[in-house]
Every structure is written in C-alpha cells, then in structure tokens.
C-alpha cells in the first residue's frame, strides 16, 4: 500500500516525504505503552495513515491537544526544517519562530479526535498517546518519527528509517 498524506490546502494527496511503502521506522520501544523494553517496526504507510485519520494542527503550543507544535529542540529535523514554512498567520510560542512541524501520537489506538485540552484521553482507561511521535510539516506530510527513550519521558530520539529487503 502506498503512502497517503494531506497535501497543501488541506486536500488529500498521495504526496509524502516517504516514497515507498516498503520502508519502516525502527523504534526502540513499544509505541503504544510506556513499559520498559520492546521494539517496534512502524511502517511509513502506517505513519501516514495515522496522520491522515487525525485532525489537522489547530494550535502552536508544544503541549496540549495533539497534534501539537514540534519545535525540534534536539535538532533531529534540522535538514528537513530548512525547506519547511509555518502555517500562514501563525506566531511562535515563548519567543520562538512559528513552528514548521507538528507531532502526532504514533499509538495506533490513541484517538486524536477524543482528547482533552491536555492531550489525554477524555474517557479514563482509553489508550494514551504513548512514547512515540510522528513528525509532520504543516500539510501533514510525514517527516519522520521520534520517541522518548526508555526511562526518559522528556527528551526524544529520532527513529531511523530503514528499507525492507526484498
């Protein structure tokens, strides 16, 4: 299955920074829970489908409802961000330039449409966001994946994108 993301102007598009459904992100954690250990091979097409099913960015804050602004404090997406532009009419948060990237939960069971203003499930017991994020540009085109390393829920590590051998 090919990747499908939102293109410019909010229209559905087949364009993506991911050019092949045969690639995946190597995440050194489970993407759907905070327990220790585990490893997930998260396909590029799965990332695009999660984003496609989620709402478009609606604010520029680093926290709160998802997707939320991703300011790439670690510098993992420096090369990608050079070519990205902010949403028209947006401002940055805390003296920063306006964001050019947004973070979505990579947990396929997280409901992006049913969350409170803090980005947590409205219904107790529903799946939370988990430790992994799908990073997109303003048009919801996947740029990559990041995750909190085991035991560190503050910092992010960029997941390596790999290609399946045929």
From TrEMBL:
Residues 1-11 have a biased composition (Gly residues). It comes from Apodospora peruviana. Residues 1-24, 145-166 are annotated as: Disordered. This is Uncharacterized protein.
